[in-house]
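#structure-requests
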Amino acid sequence: MISVKEALQIVLNSIQNFGIEEIPFMKSVGRILKEEIRADRDFPPFNRVSMDGIAIDYTLFESGQRAFKIEGIQAAGSEQLTLKNPKNCIEVMTGAVLPNKANTVIRYEDVETNNGYAKIITEGIFEAQNIHSKGKDGRSGDLLIEENTRISAAEIGVLATVGKTFVKVVKQPKVMIVSTGDELVGVHEIPLYHQIRRSNVFTLVSLLERLNIPSETAHITDDKSVLKAKIKVYLQEYDVLLFSGAVSKGKYDFLPEIFDELGVEKLFHKVAQRPGKPFWFGQKTFISTGDTNSETVDKPQKKTIVFGFPGNPISTFVNCLVYFYPWYYKSVGLETEEETAILNADVSFKPNLEYFLQVKLENKNGKLIATPITGNGSGDLASLVNADAFIQLPNDKIEFKSGEIFTIIRYR
């Protein structure tokens, strides 16, 4: 049995390169950008009016003039006008290009218009006010979005602005989520007294959807030959296999034995943690065998990563967050920051295990407070609804005091 730190390092040393694909920019929200996005022209590309009002030559206001004859209207999207007489003004709309020979915009609230004239009724005017200067936000060629950024609505706006109709992103892994066990029935079924509905697989599907990873699901009964035959196919067809159950010591926990028979390299089995101690992790490397005279003989062709999570619901849930999420982030080049919170109650935990304790989070005066939630063990799926995160309590002591700070793993 290895420590959580050792297990996580092994997982992170087994990252995959999924490749790159180019997709329509409007389909890219949540995906990881794999190119730099640079300005194709200055931002804004012209001196942009930022308030509805009038545009004037400030030197005339400075010399004492307050009433200006209206020459015309500069609408947003129309070609740039020129102020023909510096003693006049042009009405301007938000988003319009600033007229030539004008250098200041006074909003409508600060003028009175009558009989074709605009009279300025305030003295708090300064040169170049209410103008978004050309290139102020960025110059042509400036880096606007860095590679390895997770694309959000903010990035979508920038992509549209620079005309990136298609964008390069990391391909998502092809994932199969497998549940096992004769006691499980479908969500739509009425379980018998000795049965329960499948839930873990759908929890995993949802956890992966948070990462914009599509997945497929399968359920296999506790028949070793059937399990082995189907897993053999899945190993060849998918980049990642996520299992829920059948990795412990029960008589029907066939997966570790099947993985060994199918040539899946075990990287570890059992982690000093609660919940989720029986966690199994490994990989299957497929070899490309070519011409014996070729230099390409026995070169790796494909690798499938296998996460064998314990079957108890919270064990599956926490292991996905603690191990699969960081594995995915590192695989796609996404940087993440550790988050901490202040424990809000004394906790005693005697087993020599890392403890992932469910907590409710609350922000008080700028500090993140974690209040422990009482559950009924790793099978208490309903308790997840009452919490927001897991707080990670290390195995180097048994008493954890209110006010101490520890790492948290959010799921809300």
